[in-house]
Amino acid sequence: MIKDETALRIYQAEWIGKNSFPWCSEMGGIPYVYETSFSNLICSDCADEIAGCDIEHIIAVIPYYEWADIGCDKCGAFMPSHYGEVNDD
Question: Going along the chain, which residue ranges are E strands?
């Protein structure tokens, strides 16, 4: 998990020209899930919408390697994990 300071540095330094948070890593295509100060897990589109908000902030960028697919807490968009659910069989 990448905490707030690094997440904002990623946005400001690497993605400012693109005006958006990335939906996945450039190397490996690992999907990102963004955690907000209200404990919401949101997609990159919703992260873009709250980027300049004074009330809710991005506090973590989470590479979503495995586990069940989830929905964005703001818009309900489908957010798949990279490897899917882990089977212990």
Answer: 2-3, 32-36, 41-42, 58-63, 70-71, 78-79
Q: How far is CA 71 from CA 17, 18, 33, 38, in A?
A: 27, 24, 10, 16
The SS3 assignment for 50 reads helix
**pLDDT tens column, 33-74:** 998 989 999 998 998 888 777 788 888 888 888 778 899 999
Other CB atoms within a 10 A radius of the CB of residue 36 amount to 20
CA distances from 57 to 18, 29, 83 (A): 19, 24, 28
Identify whether the C-beta of residue 44 lies closer than 8 Å to the C-beta of residue 51. no
- Alpha carbons 8 and 3: distance in angstroms, whole number: 9
